[in-house]
Amino acid sequence: MKTTLKTALLGLTLLGLGTTAKAQEVTYGLQIGSNYHMTSFGNKSVKDNSAKIGVSVAGFARIGDNLFFQPGIGASLLRKEYSFDKSQKTLKFYQINLPLQVGYKIINKKDFNLRGMLGPQLNYDIKTTKSTATTDYKKFSYDGRIGLGVDISRLTLDAYYSHGLSRVDKTLDAKNRTIGVMVGYKF
Fold it and tell me: Cα separation of 5 and 11, whole Å?
C-alpha cells in the first residue's frame, strides 16, 4: 500500500513537471497561515499526545492553466506536546518545506478559481530536536499532501492536509500529520 501511494505521488509530480513544458501561464504568490500539527505515534508508551497550533509562510509558482504544477518553498513552526517515560515533552520544530503539487482548476473563471491539489512534500528540520533522552527526530522527512484552494482576484485561500509517509522518529514510531490554512496574494 505504501509503495503504491508513493508511486502514485511520484507519477503525479512527474505529470506536473511534464505540463510545465507546455505551460503558457506562470503565477507567483506569497502565503501566510497557521498549521495544526498532530503527530501520530505507533509506540503505545507515548501518552497525552496534544496537537498545537503553529505558523507557516510560503512562496509558490503556479505553472499552467486548468491543469497546473505548483512547486513551493516555505518555512513552518510546528509544535507538539506529549509524555514519554514519565517525562513531559513540549517541542518546537522549525522546518523548511518543499511541496510539489499537481492541481486542477475545478472552476476557472476570470476572477474566481476553485482548485484541487495533490503531491509530495519534502521537509527539512533546521534545528535538531530530542525525541527521547537518547534519540533525535530525523532532519529529513516526506509527506503526501492534498488540498483545496480558492482564488478571488489576486487573493488566495488554501486548506491542506499533509500525512507523513516517512517516520520522523524510530523509537516513538512517529509520523507527521498536519492541517493548515493559508491566505495569500498572487502576482
Answer: 10
Residues forming a β-bridge with 155 = 152, 185
- What torsion, rounded to 10 degrees, do the Cα atoms 74, 149, 117, 182 define? 20
Give every CB contact of residue 52 below 8 A, 6+ residues apart in sequence: 36, 37, 78, 79, 80, 81
* Cβ contacts of 45 within 8 Å, gap of 6 or more: 84, 85
Chain center to CA of 128: 19
**Helix or strand run (H / E) with residue 104:** strand 87-108
Cell 527526530 found at: 137
Tens digit of each residue's pLDDT, the chain (187 residues): 555 555 555 555 555 555 445 547 899 999 999 999 988 888 888 888 888 999 999 999 999 999 999 999 999 999 988 888 888 888 889 999 999 999 999 999 999 999 999 999 999 999 878 777 777 889 999 999 999 999 999 999 999 999 999 999 888 888 999 999 999 999 9
